[in-house]
Design a protein that fits this description.
Shape: globular
Radius of gyration: 17 Å
Distance between the termini: 42 Å
Number of strands: 5
Number of helices: 9
Strand content: 5-15%
């Protein structure tokens, strides 16, 4: 269990971004480790996917058209501590235009491609991260990990392992705070320090940024992201709320019920139930004819 990745606010099932209640019976009884981990989670105030009321969520529109266009200027950024090249383990990727075009949050990719992006909020025990990477290797799946800076700094070998597996890395802030509550200077620092942590670990901060503690960005968050070199923030349209540890069966069922072509799925490293659910999720995607790809592949420009 990852004690810094918990949600401080219990989601409202009727709120935007909330997943449907699981079906098929009650989740299995928690193990002693899960109980101890849940106690640690309850002590934290960090949040990732807690749905917000929509107030100030001006960037919630679905992004990533099949062929992103726009003549908007590239985001201005300081000379150092900014995102530039791609943190990807795959060769031959070209930066999608949408990654350089300021606009609303990217919620999903093109619906006319039989592809989805499994995105993981990156922090937690090394053993669980390596299990996720092993499952993906076995299935031939590619993922994107939005890494928390403190996690990267503490275990840079895990960031390197993500890239070595052919996956992508993105920035998920330095310390996973509730970004909507931060002042402008602190928000900018959270993004910039996340950039620095990635650069020090793997040489690049990548093309993608996801704010912590909120489904939607705000104008202040977008300003902080652009100052660090990220033209847009990345959201998602599938949220099984695995951070609440509902059990592997629920995580799998919720994902299957919500996912479709072009979806960006929000999952979390550091949660044993998510790791347990992953083989079934990958099997379900295969049966649905959907291929898990990295975010830059999902959002690539139309040919």
């Amino acid at each position: 269990m990852n004690s810094t990745d918990a949600e401080a606010v219990q989601p409202d099932p009727g709120a935007e971004g909330a997943a449907p209640a699981p079906s098929g019976g009650a989740a299995p009884a928690p193990t002693r480790r899960a109980v101890l981990g849940a106690a640690a989670v309850a002590l934290t105030a960090a949040a990732c996917s807690a749905p917000d009321s929509g107030a100030g969520a001006t960037g919630s529109a679905s992004g990533a058209p099949s062929s992103p266009t726009g003549s908007s200027r590239a985001p201005s950024a300081p000379a150092s501590g900014t995102a530039s090249t791609s943190a990807t383990g795959s060769t031959g990727l070209v930066r999608p235009r949408i990654a350089s075009t300021p606009g609303d949050d990217i919620v999903n990719g093109p619906r006319d491609r039989s592809e989805v992006a499994l995105t993981f909020h990156g922090q937690g025990p090394a053993s669980l991260t390596r299990q996720v990477l092993a499952e993906c290797a076995s299935a031939g799946a590619h993922i994107t990990v939005f890494a928390v800076g403190t996690w990267v700094q503490a275990a840079p070998e895990l960031a390197r392992a993500v890239l070595a597996g052919g996956h992508e890395l993105g920035n998920h802030t330095w310390s996973h705070q509730q970004m909507k509550t931060l002042d402008a200077a602190t928000a900018a620092s959270e993004v910039a320090r996340g950039v620095k942590a990635l650069e020090q670990a793997v040489g690049t901060a990548g093309w993608w940024f996801r704010p912590s503690g909120t489904l939607h960005s705000t104008a202040r968050i977008r300003d902080a992201a652009r100052a660090a070199g990220y033209a847009r923030c990345v959201s998602y349209d599938v949220d099984p709320q695995d951070f609440l540890d509902p059990g592997a069966a629920a995580v799998r069922q919720r994902t299957r019920a919500q996912v479709r072509a072009g979806s960006i799925v929000s999952l979390h490293l550091g949660h044993a139930g998510t790791v347990e659910a992953l083989p079934g999720i990958l099997t379900d995607l295969s049966r649905m004819g959907l291929r898990p790809v990295g975010l830059s592949t999902l959002l690539r420009d139309a040919a």
